[in-house]
Specification:
Blueprint (H helix, E strand, L loop, with lengths): L2 H17 L13 H7 L9 H18 L7 H5 L2
């Protein structure tokens, strides 16, 4: 008897009383795939953060390329 057969036999002995049962039905209607996906969608607590980081990065890249200092209006950065 190989290892997989041994494991299968042990599993049948251990869980044989429940292994072939039907899945219990619920009284609730099943969710659509879209509804289920919405539960696991990322939470966007920092809306606009990514854009703000990109704007700051662009300003610093420009300053490094030109050798000068680029001033970014703080209100413009945080208005997103």
């Amino acid at each position: 008897m190989d290892i997989l057969e041994k494991i299968a036999k042990e599993t049948r002995e251990k869980y044989g009383d429940i292994i072939d049962r039907e899945r219990p039905e619920t009284k609730r209607k099943r969710m659509s795939m879209e509804e289920r996906a919405a539960q696991f969608a990322p939470f966007a607590a920092l809306t606009g953060y990514h854009e703000s980081v990109e704007e700051t990065e662009d300003a610093h890249t420009l300053a490094n390329e030109t050798g000068g200092v680029t001033v970014v209006d703080e209100a413009e950065v945080w208005s997103s």
